[in-house]
Specification:
Rossmann fold; 9 helices; six-stranded mixed beta sheet; 10 strands; single chain; binds magnesium ion; about 240 residues; alpha/beta; about 40% helix; four-stranded antiparallel beta sheet; binds adenosine-5'-triphosphate
Length: about 240
């Protein structure tokens, strides 16, 4: 996916102020930045929830500008929201099945794939429980499973480990690492920088709707501007 010169404003606030972005097939990218720097707004634009005032977005060389979230989804681009969003009164297996049907626009249900995903997210024993019975952290794992069931090749995750216990942070990070290893590209927004530095080969840092810096985790951790404006406050 490639995007350039993205601009979005809310009243007088420039949430995106000429932001560029790109993610290659199978890559894992971390997106950092202070509160209000425009990270969620960027994801909203790159998944079709928000149409920018200017700029362009392409996926696999096709223009995506003006397309709806469901069109992004069918093209292979999806999203895990900041607040957990599962279907509470459907079973885990039904949650996954619904994503298969909804996102792939198909009427064929691949039960084997559903079972494989339940195993992969470590929740097979709860296959027939309602999703609302799961803990918050387990619901996060289910959401990542739902992204897999949708068949997305590029997944944006907005603070996937926020509010989780250290043990759950480990489970979610390990799962994300495995998902990425299997060839799915990830863009991960996080305030827990160790998660991003552990999982991602490239890191982008935003400041006031613009790119402040990009580079490898090592470069970013030693970047003076980043240290001054962002990392000093988080570590
Ligand atoms: N729907 C909206 N209406 C008005 N202002 C908004 C809206 N969405 C975002 N903003 C403003 O745009 C700026 C960027 O917000 P955004 O949510 O993208 O930041 P963020 O980097 O995701 O922050 P956080 O780390 O707190 O989640 C902020 O100043 C925010 O107040
Ligand atoms: Mg946000």
């Amino acid at each position: 996916m490639e995007a350039a010169e993205l601009r979005v404003s809310f009243g007088g606030v420039k949430a995106l102020d000429g932001m560029d972005f790109e993610v290659h097939r199978g890559e894992a990218i971390g997106l950092l930045g202070q509160n209000g720097s425009g990270k969620t707004t960027l994801i909203n634009v790159l998944t079709g929830l928000l149409v920018p005032e200017s700029g362009f977005v392409t996926f696999c060389d096709q223009s995506m500008l003006g397309r709806k979230p469901e069109e992004y989804s069918r093209a292979g681009v999806g999203r895990v929201f900041q607040s957990v969003q599962v279907f509470p009164r459907l079973t885990l297996a039904e949650n996954l099945t619904l994503m298969q049907i909804g996102a792939q626009g198909a009427f064929k249900v691949d039960r084997d794939a559903v079972e494989r995903i339940l195993d992969r997210i470590g929740l097979a024993i709860y296959a027939n429980e309602w999703a609302q019975e799961l803990s918050y952290g387990e619901q996060r794992l289910l959401e990542i499973g739902m992204a897999l069931a949708a068949g997305w090749q590029l997944i944006f995750l907005d603070e996937p480990t926020a509010g989780l216990s250290p043990m759950m942070v480990d489970r979610v990070s390990t799962l994300l690492g495995e998902v990425n290893e299997s060839g799915v590209a990830l863009v991960i927004i996080e305030h827990q920088t160790d998660v991003v530095f552990g999982l991602c080969e490239r890191v982008w840092v935003m400041d006031q709707g613009r790119l402040l810096a990009k580079g490898t985790p090592d470069e970013i951790q030693h970047n003076e501007q980043v240290l001054e404006s962002y990392l000093a406050g988080t570590q």
